[in-house]
Amino acid sequence: MASRGRKRKAEAALAAAAEKREKPAGGQEGGVEGPSVVIEHCTSRVYGRNAAALSQALRLQAPELTVKVNPARPRRGSFEVTLLRADGSSAELWTGLKKGPPRKLKFPEPHVVLEELKKYLS
């Protein structure tokens, strides 16, 4: 059985390799890709369930957007929704970092995020 240090180093190496593979693929398109929404959430079941519900609502209401869930390793206790524009800028639609307890305050209602999204896209 590997010690904790070795395991963490191996996980970090895998994450770095995955990042390197993603960046060239995105760079080849030349920034032609439209806006996308990134949902970053902690790996807890409750966070994942809320992220899945939100991503489904976003895909139904705005099918032209790309929705990515945890493209990189998430921070502990985080739940954030960010809009990435085609020009490379970003806008934060929701952050639950400083909200709660109770934990349910960390998660937005889908209609709140959709209103913010419409504000930024118009």
TrEMBL record:
Domain of life of the source: Eukaryota
Region (Disordered) residue spans: 1-34
UniProt keyword terms in alphabetical order: Redox-active center
InterPro entries in the cross-refs: Selenoprotein_Rdx-typ, SelWTH-like, Thioredoxin-like_sf
Name under which the protein is recorded: Selenoprotein H
Organism in which the protein naturally occurs: Bos taurus (Bovine)
